[in-house]
């Protein structure tokens, strides 16, 4: 009976959609690059508009060197992105091998695709609602916000004037992950700052040498710096992965598994909405090297979602799948015994994909089958009353009824531990205190005098001895006045 109720509640669709909390099911994976401009990431940062109406910053970072650039813009249109990339980044720093971004419309537009195709630059993107896939621009956004937040109140109205200066200060600062400044890893030398010109020092340590010597020394310095930077970055990534994976609950998905998508488009005004969406999706395959799965929806379209946003669910029959797409689920009905959202599992049924039909949901058998579940998980009204089994060792009372409630009396298990009274401070004789486990004289019946403890009958003798002791003390402490 207990297992049936547990299995019934575990397969309740309404409970799954509302009560199931998302977990970290995929281990941490890092983006990899082999050199400067091998992988360039970009993202938009939105800030309060300044006096000129500028409220957006296009952030572009080089993944290998951590070199960053930020370009204030008035909008996030695709034409603006293409113009900034071409005039302010590609011309000055060269063309990257791959450009990575999120799934924003400004980055996934037809104009950007044609521009990158013309320049022979490959394009990659993150999965929906997963900013961890574009981590470097997101982390730089926080740093840039902290730097802009240190401006005084008057200068904050013109924050767009200070962006380039603060970004240059960031590039000239030693990075904690690589151990070098992004400027040095990008250009092979440290930036010459105003303080260097004031004191007349050369930060690169080079005097008047020929071009060939400069190139040879530059290659040698860069090779050493790249090797050390890769080692430092690898140690940092391993530490981050170890701490992240310690909280991961591994849940591998295989093709054919049925999943629900996490409902991530809600804001604070939808506190009663479900945590997971209503439509069922079928796992098609897994992308190589990353915890991203391609899933197929009820209309046959393919999507790529991160594993942390997928919830595996038990097998659903065809009739119950049609019921959950009706008004019962959309209206948010409660979990009742006759609810059509409670479904059974058919472990031995063959797998079949019907995703091409919009009116029917696919029926997929689970891959990891255990013991066969009961034929029906629905509760029956004809089930006999539950009678608890008697256990040996309990004091059973035959035909005993509680007169107050009319129910059978409950037997209480008695412990075998001997309970002893707490210790109390007492006196065996005057001036010699000790502890005894017997209760205090004033709280219980008279003691037996054989326990070497003052009895109630000896109170007069005790008071007499105390009076005599006080008399002797007063005679010894008498003072003679002259």
UniProtKB/TrEMBL annotation:
This is Integrase catalytic domain-containing protein. Residues 314-408 are annotated as: Disordered. Pfam families: rve (PF00665). Residues 32-190 form the Integrase catalytic domain. InterPro entries: Integrase_cat-core, Retrovirus_Pol_polyprotein, RNaseH-like_sf, RNaseH_sf. Gene3D superfamilies: Ribonuclease H-like superfamily/Ribonuclease H. One of its GO terms (molecular function) is nucleic acid binding. GO terms for biological process: DNA integration. Residues 324-355, 364-384, 392-403 have a biased composition (Polar residues). The lineage of its organism: Eukaryota, Metazoa, Chordata, Craniata, Vertebrata.
């Amino acid at each position: 009976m207990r297992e049936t109720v547990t299995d019934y509640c575990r397969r309740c669709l309404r409970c799954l959609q509302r009560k199931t909390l998302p977990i970290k099911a995929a281990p941490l994976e890092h983006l990899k690059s082999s050199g400067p401009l091998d992988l360039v990431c970009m993202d938009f940062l939105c800030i309060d508009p300044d006096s000129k109406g500028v409220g957006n910053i296009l952030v572009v970072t080089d993944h290998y060197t951590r070199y960053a650039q930020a370009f204030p813009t008035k909008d996030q249109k695709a034409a603006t992105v293409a113009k900034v990339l071409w005039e302010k980044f590609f011309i000055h720093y060269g063309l990257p091998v791959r450009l990575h971004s999120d799934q924003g419309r400004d980055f996934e537009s037809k104009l950007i695709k044609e521009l990158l195709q013309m320049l022979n630059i490959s394009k990659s993107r993150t999965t929906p609602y997963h900013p961890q896939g574009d981590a470097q621009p997101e982390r730089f956004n926080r740093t840039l916000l902290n730097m802009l937040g240190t401006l005084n109140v008057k200068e904050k109205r013109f924050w767009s004037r200070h962006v380039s200066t603060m970004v240059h200060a960031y590039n000239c600062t030693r990075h904690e992950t690589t151990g070098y400044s992004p400027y040095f890893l990008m250009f092979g030398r440290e930036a010459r700052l105003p303080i260097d010109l004031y004191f007349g020092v050369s930060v690169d340590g080079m005097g008047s040498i020929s071009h060939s010597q400069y190139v040879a020394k530059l290659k040698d310095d860069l090779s050493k710096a790249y090797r050390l930077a890769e080692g430092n970055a690898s140690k940092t990534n391993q530490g981050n992965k170890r701490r992240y994976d310690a909280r991961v609950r591994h849940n591998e998905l295989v093709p054919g598994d049925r999943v629900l998508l996490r409902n991530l488009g809600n804001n604070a005004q939808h506190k009663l909405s479900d945590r997971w969406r209503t439509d069922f999706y079928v796992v098609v395959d897994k992308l190589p090297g990353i915890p991203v799965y391609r899933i197929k929806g009820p209309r046959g379209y393919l999507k790529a979602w991160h594993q942390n946003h997928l919830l595996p669910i038990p097998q659903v029959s065809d009739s119950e799948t049609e019921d959950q797409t009706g008004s019962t689920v959309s209206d948010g009905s409660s979990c009742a015994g006759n609810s059509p959202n409670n479904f059974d599992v058919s472990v031995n049924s063959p797998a079949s994909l019907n995703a091409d039909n919009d009116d029917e949901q696919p029926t997929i058998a689970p891959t990891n089958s255990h013991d066969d579940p009961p034929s029906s998980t629905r509760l029956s009204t004809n089930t006999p009353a539950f009678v608890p089994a008697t256990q040996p060792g309990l004091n059973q009372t035959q035909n005993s009824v509680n007169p107050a409630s009319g129910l059978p009396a409950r037997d209480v298990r008695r412990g075998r531990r001997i309970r002893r009274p707490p210790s109390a401070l007492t006196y065996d004789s005057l001036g010699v205190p000790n502890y005894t486990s017997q209760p205090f004289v004033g709280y219980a019946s008279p003691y037996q005098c054989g326990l070497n403890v003052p009895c109630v009958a000896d109170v007069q003798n005790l008071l007499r001895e105390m009076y005599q002791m006080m008399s002797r003390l007063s005679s010894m402490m008498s003072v003679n006045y002259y």
